[in-house]
Structure formats: structure tokens, C-alpha cells
Design a protein that fits this description.
Blueprint lengths: L2 H25 L6 E5 L8 E8 L8 E7 L3 E3 L2 E3 L2 E7 H7 E7 L6 H13 L10 H13 L6
Antiparallel strand pairs: 1-2, 1-7, 2-3, 3-6, 4-5
């Protein structure tokens, strides 16, 4: 077998493995404690951590409650580093995540945020996001980073 053919086969195998791994990550069921990379993470070290997966009556898909770590967001003159709780439609989260890195602890503050959201949801006053993690973080940065108008 020629060198060019071996190189092609090796490159094709590596490419196929990478595509299969990405596809497998997209089909991985979400479970509490999973740590995922996500598209558009800024900084690149920002991660999504799965907190709770709810299969709620009347919803066509699970609602996945997440935390986003290492996502500096201005908040009253401080930098909020972790967004403790965000509820998302599972299909949108699947499109947002890239790679499952492993598992770890759910960040502090998640339980409180989840509890407040769940009370609101159960009372018909809470919803969930149907936009990407990147878009949510961008909106939070824009909204929380704005200074109140001086009158």
C-alpha cells in the first residue's frame, strides 16, 4: 500500500471518528452533573452544567435546567461569574452544546434558582428559553451591563 493511500485512510479514519464523536455527543441524554462545552463560549473556558432534567406534563420535550460557569457578566459593579440557573428546551440545548467533558458538582445557587423557577412554572408564570446558550449569555451581558439612565 502506498504512502499516499495510507495517509488518506488514516486521515479519513480520524475525520470519521471525530464526526462520530460529535454526533454521539449530540445524542447523549442530558443528566445532572454533566459538563458540556458550548458554541460561542466566551471565554472559551465557559461551560454548561446540567442541573435537572424535567419531563413536564404538557411539554413536547424535556426542560433542562442548567448553570453556565466562567461567563463574566457585569452585575451592579461586580462580575457575575456563574449564571446559577437557566431553564432551556432540550432541543435547543442539544444544538448549543459541542462536547461532553465529564461530570462534576452542580454550582452553588442552582437549587435556589431552580426552586424559584419551578414555583413560577407550576403556577403558570414561568417559562423557559428557546434560544441558544450563547444568545442567552449575550442578552444577560447586554441587559445587566447597562447602567440605569440618570434623570
Amino acid at each position: 500500500m502506498g504512502t499516499a493511500r495510507r495517509t488518506f485512510l488514516w486521515s479519513f479514519s480520524i475525520l470519521s471518528f471525530g464526526i462520530c464523536q460529535a454526533a454521539m455527543a449530540q445524542n447523549e441524554p442530558f443528566k445532572p452533573g454533566q459538563i458540556w462545552t458550548y458554541h460561542g463560549a466566551t471565554p472559551a473556558s465557559s461551560r454548561v452544567i446540567i442541573g435537572v432534567v424535567d419531563n413536564l406534563e404538557g411539554e413536547s420535550q424535556p426542560i433542562v435546567s442548567i448553570s453556565v460557569t466562567d461567563a463574566p457578566i457585569p452585575n451592579d459593579g461586580k462580575q457575575l461569574q456563574t449564571v446559577p440557573h437557566l431553564p432551556m428546551a432540550a432541543n435547543v440545548l442539544k444544538e448549543s452544546v459541542v462536547e461532553l467533558e465529564g461530570t462534576g458538582p452542580i454550582p452553588a445557587g442552582f437549587d435556589h434558582g431552580y426552586s424559584l423557577w419551578r414555583q413560577a412554572y407550576d403556577g403558570g408564570k414561568g417559562g423557559y428559553f428557546t434560544i441558544s446558550v450563547e444568545e442567552i449569555v449575550g442578552i444577560l451581558r447586554t441587559q445587566l451591563g447597562q447602567q440605569p439612565a440618570v434623570k
